Amino acid sequence: MSDAIDARIADRLSRIHERIAGAARRAGRSPDDVRLVAVSKRQPVERIAAAVRAGVRDLGENRVQEARDKRAAVLAAIGDAARPRWHLVGSLQRNKAALATELFDSIETVDRESLAASLARHAREASRRVPVLLQVNISREPQKGGVAPERAAELLAACREHDSLAWVGLMGIPAANRDPEASRAAFAQLRALRDTLQGQPGGDSLRALSMGMSGDFEVAIEEGATSIRVGTALFGERDASQEGRTR
Known about the structure:
Helices cover about 40% and strands about 15% of the residues.
C-alpha cells in the first residue's frame, strides 16, 4: 500500500511541477522562482511522508494543534528524506501564538497588530526571528481573515518595531470561483499592493507573494506568485472526519 501511495503522490507532484513550469514560462519567469507549499491539512501521515520522499520541501498546515499532533509522526515516517519546512497558512488565534512560533518556520496569516505583538514576544523569548507574511483580504469577504488592502501600509508601519519578526511578503486568498480566470484581478491587485509597499520605508523586504491554490495556481504564477499553496491536487481529497478539530 505504501508503494502505491508513494507512486501516486510522485506522479501528481510531477504533473504539478510541469504546470508550474508552463505557467512560469508564459510569464517569462523561472520555475525556480516559485515555491510549492504542499497543504497537508486533514491529510494522513502516509500521504504527507510520500510527498516529502517525492521531493516536497515545504508543508502548509491550517491548524496549529493539527500540526503539533502530526509533526513527529511525519518526521518519523520520512526516513532519510530532507526535513521539510512548515508554514502556517490558516488563521491564528493569539492564544496559539506561542505554540505557532515553536512549530512553524514561517507564519503567513498575520493580519492584526495584537497578533503580531504576541508572535513577536514569543519569538523573542525563543531567541528566534520568525518570517511572517501579512494576510490581505483581497476580495473583502467578511468570513475571511486578512487586513483590508487600504490598511496594509498602516498595519505594517505599526508592526515594524517588532524586530523578532521578519516581514517577507503578502498572502491572499481570492473569492472562490470555478473559473481560475476569475481570480486574476485579485492576484494582480495583491501584486500591485506588494509593489507599492516595497517602495515605502522598510518595505524592501516584502518580496514574497503567497497566492494561488489547487484550482488557480497557474493564473497566480502568471500574475507574480512566488509561493503557491497546493493541497488536493497533490494529496487528493481530505479526511472529512478531521474537520472539527480545533486550531
